[in-house]
Protein backbone atom coordinates (compact mmCIF):
# COMPACT_ATOMS: atom_id res chain seq x y z
CA UNK A 1 0.00 0.00 0.00
CA UNK A 2 1.23 3.50 -0.81
CA UNK A 3 2.18 5.47 2.30
CA UNK A 4 3.70 8.73 1.10
CA UNK A 5 7.20 9.95 1.93
CA UNK A 6 8.92 9.95 5.31
CA UNK A 7 8.38 13.67 5.87
CA UNK A 8 4.68 13.42 5.06
CA UNK A 9 4.37 10.36 7.33
CA UNK A 10 5.94 12.34 10.20
CA UNK A 11 3.46 15.14 9.70
CA UNK A 12 0.55 12.72 9.67
CA UNK A 13 1.37 10.97 12.91
CA UNK A 14 0.31 12.42 16.27
CA UNK A 15 2.90 12.32 19.04
CA UNK A 16 2.20 9.18 21.12
CA UNK A 17 -0.68 7.14 19.70
CA UNK A 18 0.53 7.13 16.11
CA UNK A 19 -3.01 7.69 14.77
CA UNK A 20 -3.28 9.85 11.68
CA UNK A 21 -4.39 13.44 12.19
CA UNK A 22 -5.33 16.02 9.64
CA UNK A 23 -2.76 18.79 9.62
CA UNK A 24 -2.25 21.92 7.63
CA UNK A 25 -0.26 22.46 4.45
CA UNK A 26 1.46 19.49 2.86
CA UNK A 27 0.01 17.00 5.33
CA UNK A 28 -3.59 17.95 4.53
CA UNK A 29 -2.84 17.58 0.82
CA UNK A 30 -1.41 14.12 1.46
CA UNK A 31 -4.50 13.06 3.43
CA UNK A 32 -6.74 14.32 0.64
CA UNK A 33 -4.69 12.59 -2.02
CA UNK A 34 -4.71 9.36 -0.08
CA UNK A 35 -8.52 9.45 0.29
CA UNK A 36 -8.98 10.17 -3.40
CA UNK A 37 -6.65 7.34 -4.44
CA UNK A 38 -8.28 4.85 -2.08
CA UNK A 39 -11.69 5.72 -3.49
CA UNK A 40 -10.38 5.29 -7.04
CA UNK A 41 -8.86 1.90 -6.16
CA UNK A 42 -12.16 0.86 -4.54
CA UNK A 43 -14.01 1.85 -7.72
CA UNK A 44 -11.67 -0.33 -9.81
CA UNK A 45 -12.28 -3.28 -7.47
CA UNK A 46 -16.02 -2.59 -7.49
CA UNK A 47 -16.09 -2.56 -11.30
CA UNK A 48 -14.47 -6.02 -11.31
CA UNK A 49 -11.55 -4.78 -13.43
CA UNK A 50 -8.79 -5.15 -10.82
CA UNK A 51 -5.71 -6.78 -12.32
CA UNK A 52 -3.92 -9.26 -10.09
CA UNK A 53 -0.32 -10.17 -10.80
CA UNK A 54 0.68 -13.80 -10.39
CA UNK A 55 4.24 -14.14 -9.15
CA UNK A 56 6.46 -16.50 -11.13
CA UNK A 57 9.36 -18.10 -9.28
CA UNK A 58 11.13 -19.57 -12.31
CA UNK A 59 12.33 -18.51 -15.76
CA UNK A 60 9.87 -17.57 -18.47
CA UNK A 61 9.09 -20.72 -20.45
CA UNK A 62 6.46 -23.29 -21.36
CA UNK A 63 6.61 -24.71 -17.82
CA UNK A 64 6.53 -22.40 -14.81
CA UNK A 65 6.77 -22.50 -11.06
CA UNK A 66 4.51 -20.01 -9.31
CA UNK A 67 5.62 -18.40 -6.05
CA UNK A 68 4.15 -20.21 -3.05
CA UNK A 69 3.81 -23.59 -4.77
CA UNK A 70 2.39 -24.52 -8.15
CA UNK A 71 5.32 -26.18 -9.94
CA UNK A 72 5.03 -27.63 -13.44
CA UNK A 73 2.38 -25.13 -14.55
CA UNK A 74 1.91 -25.09 -18.32
CA UNK A 75 2.21 -21.51 -19.49
CA UNK A 76 -0.06 -20.36 -22.34
CA UNK A 77 -0.13 -16.62 -21.75
CA UNK A 78 3.29 -15.15 -22.55
CA UNK A 79 4.30 -13.36 -25.77
CA UNK A 80 7.30 -15.71 -25.82
CA UNK A 81 6.22 -16.88 -29.30
CA UNK A 82 9.52 -18.46 -30.26
CA UNK A 83 10.58 -19.61 -26.80
CA UNK A 84 13.73 -17.49 -26.97
CA UNK A 85 13.28 -15.86 -23.53
CA UNK A 86 15.13 -18.73 -21.90
CA UNK A 87 17.10 -20.03 -24.90
CA UNK A 88 20.60 -21.01 -23.69
CA UNK A 89 22.37 -19.11 -26.49
CA UNK A 90 20.32 -15.97 -25.82
CA UNK A 91 21.15 -16.12 -22.11
CA UNK A 92 24.84 -16.71 -22.85
CA UNK A 93 24.92 -13.72 -25.22
CA UNK A 94 23.41 -11.55 -22.48
CA UNK A 95 26.01 -12.68 -19.93
CA UNK A 96 28.85 -12.06 -22.40
CA UNK A 97 27.54 -8.57 -23.23
CA UNK A 98 27.15 -7.81 -19.52
CA UNK A 99 30.71 -8.88 -18.81
CA UNK A 100 32.26 -7.10 -21.78
CA UNK A 101 30.18 -3.89 -21.83
CA UNK A 102 28.97 -3.53 -18.24
CA UNK A 103 25.60 -3.14 -16.58
CA UNK A 104 24.57 0.04 -18.34
CA UNK A 105 25.57 3.36 -19.83
CA UNK A 106 24.33 5.86 -17.25
CA UNK A 107 23.62 8.07 -20.21
CA UNK A 108 21.38 8.77 -23.15
CA UNK A 109 22.62 7.76 -26.57
CA UNK A 110 23.84 11.16 -27.84
CA UNK A 111 25.81 12.08 -24.73
CA UNK A 112 27.77 9.04 -23.70
CA UNK A 113 25.50 6.08 -24.34
CA UNK A 114 26.29 4.51 -27.71
CA UNK A 115 28.40 1.35 -27.76
CA UNK A 116 29.42 -0.75 -30.73
CA UNK A 117 26.75 -3.33 -29.81
CA UNK A 118 23.98 -0.71 -30.14
CA UNK A 119 25.17 0.16 -33.64
CA UNK A 120 25.52 -3.54 -34.54
CA UNK A 121 22.00 -4.32 -33.34
CA UNK A 122 20.51 -1.38 -35.28
CA UNK A 123 22.27 -2.55 -38.42
CA UNK A 124 21.02 -6.12 -37.83
CA UNK A 125 17.40 -4.99 -37.30
CA UNK A 126 17.47 -3.00 -40.55
CA UNK A 127 18.92 -6.01 -42.39
CA UNK A 128 16.32 -8.36 -40.86
CA UNK A 129 13.46 -6.15 -42.08
CA UNK A 130 15.23 -5.23 -45.35
CA UNK A 131 15.06 -1.52 -44.51
CA UNK A 132 17.67 1.26 -44.75
CA UNK A 133 18.28 1.92 -41.07
CA UNK A 134 16.94 1.39 -37.55
CA UNK A 135 16.92 3.18 -34.19
CA UNK A 136 16.64 1.57 -30.75
CA UNK A 137 14.36 2.67 -27.92
CA UNK A 138 13.89 1.43 -24.35
CA UNK A 139 10.57 -0.08 -25.46
CA UNK A 140 8.17 -0.17 -28.39
CA UNK A 141 5.88 1.96 -26.26
CA UNK A 142 8.60 4.62 -26.47
CA UNK A 143 9.09 4.06 -30.21
CA UNK A 144 5.35 4.67 -30.70
CA UNK A 145 5.40 7.65 -28.36
CA UNK A 146 8.28 9.19 -30.30
CA UNK A 147 7.54 8.76 -33.96
CA UNK A 148 4.34 10.68 -34.73
CA UNK A 149 5.34 13.90 -32.99
CA UNK A 150 8.76 13.90 -34.67
CA UNK A 151 7.38 13.15 -38.13
CA UNK A 152 4.02 14.92 -38.43
CA UNK A 153 3.10 18.61 -38.21
CA UNK A 154 -0.27 20.41 -38.24
CA UNK A 155 -0.02 20.34 -42.05
CA UNK A 156 -0.18 16.51 -42.04
CA UNK A 157 -2.73 13.81 -41.25
CA UNK A 158 -2.63 10.45 -39.49
CA UNK A 159 -5.28 7.76 -40.05
CA UNK A 160 -5.43 5.17 -37.29
CA UNK A 161 -7.33 1.88 -36.87
CA UNK A 162 -9.74 2.26 -33.92
CA UNK A 163 -8.34 -0.86 -32.23
CA UNK A 164 -4.68 0.13 -32.44
CA UNK A 165 -2.52 -0.51 -29.38
CA UNK A 166 -2.64 2.04 -26.54
CA UNK A 167 0.91 3.17 -27.29
CA UNK A 168 0.00 4.14 -30.88
CA UNK A 169 -3.03 6.01 -29.56
CA UNK A 170 -0.86 7.84 -27.03
CA UNK A 171 1.82 8.60 -29.63
CA UNK A 172 -0.80 10.09 -31.95
CA UNK A 173 -2.22 12.15 -29.08
CA UNK A 174 1.21 13.74 -28.65
CA UNK A 175 1.46 14.94 -32.24
CA UNK A 176 -0.17 18.00 -33.79
CA UNK A 177 -1.27 16.36 -37.04
CA UNK A 178 -4.93 16.11 -38.08
CA UNK A 179 -6.34 12.86 -36.68
CA UNK A 180 -8.69 10.40 -38.36
CA UNK A 181 -9.84 7.15 -36.75
CA UNK A 182 -11.16 4.47 -39.11
CA UNK A 183 -13.31 1.48 -38.14
CA UNK A 184 -11.35 -1.67 -37.31
CA UNK A 185 -9.94 -3.13 -40.56
CA UNK A 186 -12.78 -1.45 -42.51
CA UNK A 187 -11.36 -0.54 -45.91
CA UNK A 188 -14.43 1.43 -47.01
CA UNK A 189 -14.11 3.63 -43.95
CA UNK A 190 -10.35 4.01 -44.46
CA UNK A 191 -10.95 5.07 -48.07
CA UNK A 192 -13.55 7.65 -47.00
CA UNK A 193 -11.13 9.04 -44.41
CA UNK A 194 -8.27 9.11 -46.97
CA UNK A 195 -10.50 11.12 -49.33
CA UNK A 196 -11.26 13.56 -46.52
CA UNK A 197 -7.54 13.81 -45.71
CA UNK A 198 -6.49 14.72 -49.26
CA UNK A 199 -6.32 18.38 -48.25
CA UNK A 200 -3.34 17.73 -46.00
CA UNK A 201 0.33 17.73 -47.02
CA UNK A 202 1.11 14.14 -45.99
CA UNK A 203 -1.08 11.18 -44.96
CA UNK A 204 0.15 8.38 -42.72
CA UNK A 205 -1.96 5.25 -42.22
CA UNK A 206 -1.09 3.62 -38.87
CA UNK A 207 -2.10 0.09 -37.95
CA UNK A 208 -1.09 -2.84 -35.80
CA UNK A 209 0.17 -5.62 -38.11
CA UNK A 210 -1.49 -8.19 -35.84
CA UNK A 211 -4.03 -7.19 -33.19
CA UNK A 212 -3.27 -8.68 -29.81
CA UNK A 213 -6.77 -9.11 -28.42
CA UNK A 214 -8.27 -10.88 -31.43
CA UNK A 215 -5.30 -12.49 -33.15
CA UNK A 216 -6.47 -10.94 -36.42
CA UNK A 217 -4.11 -9.61 -39.06
CA UNK A 218 -4.46 -6.20 -40.71
CA UNK A 219 -5.44 -6.37 -44.43
CA UNK A 220 -2.11 -4.85 -45.43
CA UNK A 221 -2.45 -5.57 -49.15
CA UNK A 222 -5.66 -3.56 -49.32
CA UNK A 223 -4.25 -0.86 -47.02
CA UNK A 224 -1.19 -0.50 -49.26
CA UNK A 225 -3.37 -0.34 -52.40
CA UNK A 226 -5.42 2.46 -50.85
CA UNK A 227 -2.24 4.19 -49.69
CA UNK A 228 -0.95 4.10 -53.26
CA UNK A 229 -4.25 5.41 -54.65
CA UNK A 230 -4.39 8.32 -52.17
CA UNK A 231 -0.67 9.00 -51.95
CA UNK A 232 -0.26 7.99 -48.30
CA UNK A 233 2.48 6.32 -46.27
CA UNK A 234 1.93 3.12 -44.25
CA UNK A 235 3.17 2.57 -40.70
CA UNK A 236 2.80 -0.82 -38.95
CA UNK A 237 3.35 -1.90 -35.35
CA UNK A 238 4.76 -5.41 -35.58
CA UNK A 239 5.02 -6.35 -31.89
CA UNK A 240 2.85 -9.44 -32.44
CA UNK A 241 4.39 -10.38 -35.79
CA UNK A 242 8.16 -9.79 -35.81
CA UNK A 243 10.12 -13.01 -35.74
CA UNK A 244 7.35 -15.42 -36.68
CA UNK A 245 4.78 -14.20 -39.25
CA UNK A 246 5.67 -14.81 -42.90
CA UNK A 247 7.82 -17.57 -44.41
CA UNK A 248 10.98 -16.18 -42.77
CA UNK A 249 9.41 -14.55 -39.73
CA UNK A 250 9.92 -11.01 -41.06
CA UNK A 251 6.39 -10.06 -40.12
CA UNK A 252 2.99 -9.13 -41.51
CA UNK A 253 4.47 -7.31 -44.51
CA UNK A 254 6.33 -10.47 -45.53
CA UNK A 255 3.27 -12.67 -44.88
CA UNK A 256 1.13 -10.49 -47.15
CA UNK A 257 3.81 -9.77 -49.77
CA UNK A 258 4.05 -5.99 -49.22
CA UNK A 259 7.55 -5.58 -47.79
CA UNK A 260 8.33 -2.94 -50.42
CA UNK A 261 5.12 -0.99 -49.76
CA UNK A 262 5.21 -0.46 -45.99
CA UNK A 263 7.39 2.57 -45.19
CA UNK A 264 7.79 2.46 -41.40
CA UNK A 265 7.90 -0.44 -38.93
CA UNK A 266 7.90 -0.17 -35.16
CA UNK A 267 8.39 -3.32 -33.13
CA UNK A 268 9.55 -4.74 -29.83
CA UNK A 269 12.50 -6.76 -28.59
CA UNK A 270 10.37 -7.71 -25.58
CA UNK A 271 8.23 -10.45 -27.12
CA UNK A 272 9.46 -12.96 -29.74
CA UNK A 273 12.99 -11.49 -30.04
CA UNK A 274 14.32 -12.74 -26.71
CA UNK A 275 11.67 -11.14 -24.52
CA UNK A 276 14.00 -8.92 -22.47
CA UNK A 277 12.95 -5.37 -23.38
CA UNK A 278 13.49 -2.69 -25.98
CA UNK A 279 11.86 -1.44 -29.13
CA UNK A 280 12.78 0.12 -32.44
CA UNK A 281 11.78 1.96 -35.59
CA UNK A 282 13.10 0.79 -38.94
CA UNK A 283 12.60 2.53 -42.28
CA UNK A 284 14.13 5.15 -44.59
CA UNK A 285 17.49 6.53 -43.43
CA UNK A 286 16.47 10.23 -43.34
CA UNK A 287 13.55 9.29 -41.07
CA UNK A 288 15.84 7.42 -38.68
CA UNK A 289 18.32 10.32 -38.76
CA UNK A 290 15.49 12.71 -37.90
CA UNK A 291 14.31 10.52 -35.01
CA UNK A 292 17.83 10.61 -33.54
CA UNK A 293 17.59 14.43 -33.55
CA UNK A 294 13.96 14.92 -32.55
CA UNK A 295 12.34 11.88 -30.94
CA UNK A 296 11.86 12.71 -27.26
CA UNK A 297 11.81 9.18 -25.74
CA UNK A 298 15.11 8.53 -27.58
CA UNK A 299 16.75 11.84 -26.69
CA UNK A 300 15.76 11.94 -23.04
CA UNK A 301 15.98 8.31 -21.87
CA UNK A 302 18.82 5.96 -21.03
CA UNK A 303 20.47 3.65 -23.59
CA UNK A 304 19.41 0.02 -23.70
CA UNK A 305 21.51 -2.03 -21.23
CA UNK A 306 24.17 -4.21 -22.90
CA UNK A 307 22.68 -7.48 -21.61
CA UNK A 308 19.36 -6.61 -23.24
CA UNK A 309 21.14 -5.71 -26.48
CA UNK A 310 23.00 -9.04 -26.32
CA UNK A 311 19.74 -11.02 -26.00
CA UNK A 312 18.06 -9.35 -28.96
CA UNK A 313 21.15 -9.54 -31.13
CA UNK A 314 21.47 -13.29 -30.57
CA UNK A 315 17.73 -13.83 -31.14
CA UNK A 316 18.04 -12.12 -34.54
CA UNK A 317 21.11 -14.23 -35.41
CA UNK A 318 19.12 -17.39 -34.67
CA UNK A 319 16.22 -16.23 -36.84
CA UNK A 320 18.43 -15.16 -39.73
CA UNK A 321 20.24 -18.51 -39.69
CA UNK A 322 17.08 -20.57 -40.09
CA UNK A 323 13.31 -20.25 -40.21
CA UNK A 324 12.86 -23.59 -38.37
CA UNK A 325 11.75 -22.03 -35.06
CA UNK A 326 9.11 -19.84 -36.73
CA UNK A 327 7.87 -22.82 -38.75
CA UNK A 328 7.63 -24.97 -35.63
CA UNK A 329 5.48 -22.33 -33.92
CA UNK A 330 3.19 -22.15 -36.96
CA UNK A 331 2.67 -25.94 -36.86
CA UNK A 332 1.82 -25.86 -33.15
CA UNK A 333 -0.59 -22.97 -33.65
CA UNK A 334 -2.32 -24.99 -36.34
CA UNK A 335 -2.55 -28.02 -34.03
CA UNK A 336 -4.14 -26.00 -31.21
CA UNK A 337 -6.57 -24.10 -33.43
CA UNK A 338 -7.80 -27.19 -35.29
CA UNK A 339 -8.15 -29.38 -32.15
CA UNK A 340 -10.02 -26.66 -30.23
CA UNK A 341 -12.34 -26.01 -33.18
CA UNK A 342 -13.02 -29.77 -33.48
CA UNK A 343 -13.81 -29.82 -29.75
CA UNK A 344 -16.53 -27.22 -30.37
CA UNK A 345 -14.85 -23.94 -29.35
CA UNK A 346 -14.78 -20.75 -31.41
CA UNK A 347 -11.26 -19.41 -31.85
CA UNK A 348 -10.97 -15.84 -33.10
CA UNK A 349 -8.41 -14.77 -35.73
CA UNK A 350 -6.62 -16.96 -38.25
CA UNK A 351 -3.20 -18.64 -38.30
CA UNK A 352 -1.90 -16.47 -35.45
CA UNK A 353 -0.41 -17.86 -32.20
CA UNK A 354 -2.76 -15.55 -30.30
CA UNK A 355 -5.76 -17.84 -30.05
CA UNK A 356 -8.69 -16.15 -28.27
CA UNK A 357 -11.17 -18.79 -27.07
CA UNK A 358 -14.43 -16.84 -27.42
CA UNK A 359 -16.85 -17.34 -24.51
CA UNK A 360 -18.98 -14.18 -24.46
CA UNK A 361 -19.78 -14.07 -20.77
CA UNK A 362 -17.25 -12.33 -18.48
CA UNK A 363 -17.94 -14.53 -15.45
CA UNK A 364 -17.63 -17.70 -17.53
CA UNK A 365 -14.23 -16.54 -18.84
CA UNK A 366 -13.03 -15.79 -15.29
CA UNK A 367 -14.18 -19.09 -13.70
CA UNK A 368 -12.94 -21.17 -16.61
CA UNK A 369 -9.49 -19.51 -16.47
CA UNK A 370 -9.35 -20.19 -12.73
CA UNK A 371 -10.36 -23.80 -13.23
CA UNK A 372 -7.76 -24.21 -15.97
CA UNK A 373 -5.12 -23.12 -13.45
CA UNK A 374 -6.46 -25.73 -11.01
CA UNK A 375 -5.60 -28.23 -13.75
CA UNK A 376 -2.11 -26.77 -14.13
CA UNK A 377 -2.76 -24.63 -17.23
CA UNK A 378 -2.04 -20.92 -16.94
CA UNK A 379 -4.32 -18.85 -19.21
CA UNK A 380 -5.94 -15.45 -18.71
CA UNK A 381 -9.56 -14.38 -19.16
CA UNK A 382 -10.26 -10.97 -20.70
CA UNK A 383 -13.51 -9.07 -20.39
CA UNK A 384 -14.89 -5.54 -20.67
CA UNK A 385 -13.34 -2.90 -20.73
CA UNK A 386 -10.26 -4.63 -22.21
CA UNK A 387 -12.50 -6.20 -24.89
CA UNK A 388 -16.05 -5.14 -25.94
CA UNK A 389 -19.01 -6.07 -23.71
CA UNK A 390 -20.34 -9.58 -24.42
CA UNK A 391 -17.06 -10.64 -26.07
CA UNK A 392 -15.21 -12.09 -23.07
CA UNK A 393 -12.63 -14.66 -23.91
CA UNK A 394 -9.66 -16.65 -22.66
CA UNK A 395 -6.56 -15.71 -24.63
CA UNK A 396 -4.21 -18.60 -25.33
CA UNK A 397 -0.76 -17.90 -26.77
CA UNK A 398 1.21 -20.65 -28.45
CA UNK A 399 4.99 -20.85 -28.36
CA UNK A 400 7.49 -22.80 -30.46
CA UNK A 401 8.68 -24.47 -27.25
CA UNK A 402 5.32 -26.01 -26.41
CA UNK A 403 5.46 -29.71 -27.18
CA UNK A 404 2.60 -31.45 -29.01
CA UNK A 405 1.80 -33.08 -25.63
CA UNK A 406 1.58 -29.63 -23.97
CA UNK A 407 -0.88 -28.50 -26.66
CA UNK A 408 -2.97 -31.67 -26.32
CA UNK A 409 -3.05 -31.33 -22.51
CA UNK A 410 -4.28 -27.77 -22.88
CA UNK A 411 -7.05 -28.81 -25.32
CA UNK A 412 -8.12 -31.68 -23.01
CA UNK A 413 -8.28 -29.35 -20.02
CA UNK A 414 -10.34 -26.81 -22.01
CA UNK A 415 -12.74 -29.55 -23.07
CA UNK A 416 -13.25 -30.78 -19.47
CA UNK A 417 -13.58 -27.27 -18.06
CA UNK A 418 -15.82 -26.15 -20.93
CA UNK A 419 -18.21 -29.07 -20.34
CA UNK A 420 -18.20 -28.49 -16.58
CA UNK A 421 -19.18 -24.82 -16.94
CA UNK A 422 -21.61 -25.23 -19.85
CA UNK A 423 -19.43 -23.65 -22.57
CA UNK A 424 -19.59 -26.97 -24.47
CA UNK A 425 -22.56 -29.34 -24.71
N1 LIG B 1 2.55 -2.33 -29.51
C1 LIG B 1 1.83 -3.45 -29.31
C2 LIG B 1 0.89 -3.90 -30.38
C3 LIG B 1 1.97 -4.20 -28.11
O1 LIG B 1 1.25 -5.30 -27.92
C4 LIG B 1 2.88 -3.73 -27.15
C5 LIG B 1 3.06 -4.46 -25.85
O2 LIG B 1 2.17 -4.96 -25.26
C6 LIG B 1 3.61 -2.57 -27.38
C7 LIG B 1 3.42 -1.88 -28.57
C8 LIG B 1 4.61 -2.07 -26.40
O3 LIG B 1 5.75 -2.87 -26.49
P1 LIG B 1 6.90 -2.77 -25.36
O4 LIG B 1 6.55 -3.82 -24.35
O5 LIG B 1 8.17 -3.03 -26.08
O6 LIG B 1 6.81 -1.41 -24.80
From TrEMBL:
Query: Which residue ranges are recorded for the region named Disordered?
Result: 1-23
What's one Pfam family here? Aminotran_1_2
- Where in the sequence does UniProt note compositional bias of the Low complexity kind? 1-12
Q: Looking at the keywords, is Disulfide bond present? A: no
What keywords appear on the UniProt entry?
Answer: Acyltransferase, Pyridoxal phosphate, Transferase, Transit peptide
Cofactor names from the entry are: pyridoxal 5'-phosphate
Q: Does the keyword Acyltransferase apply?
A: yes
Ranges of residues in domain Aminotransferase class I/classII large: 73-414
Similarity comment: Belongs to the class-II pyridoxal-phosphate-dependent aminotransferase family.
Q: What is this protein called?
A: 2-amino-3-ketobutyrate coenzyme A ligase, mitochondrial
Amino acid sequence: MWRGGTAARGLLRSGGGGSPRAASGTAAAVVQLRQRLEKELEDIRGAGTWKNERVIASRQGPHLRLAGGGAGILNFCANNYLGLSSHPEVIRAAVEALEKFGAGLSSVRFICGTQSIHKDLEEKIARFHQREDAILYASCFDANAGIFEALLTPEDAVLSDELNHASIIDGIRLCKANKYRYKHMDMQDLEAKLQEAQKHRLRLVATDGAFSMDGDIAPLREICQLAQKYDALVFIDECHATGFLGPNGRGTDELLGVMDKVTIINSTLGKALGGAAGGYTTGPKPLIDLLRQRSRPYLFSNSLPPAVVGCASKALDLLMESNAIAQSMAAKTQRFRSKMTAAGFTISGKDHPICPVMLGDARLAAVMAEDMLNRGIYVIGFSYPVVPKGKARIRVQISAVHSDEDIDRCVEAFTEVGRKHGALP
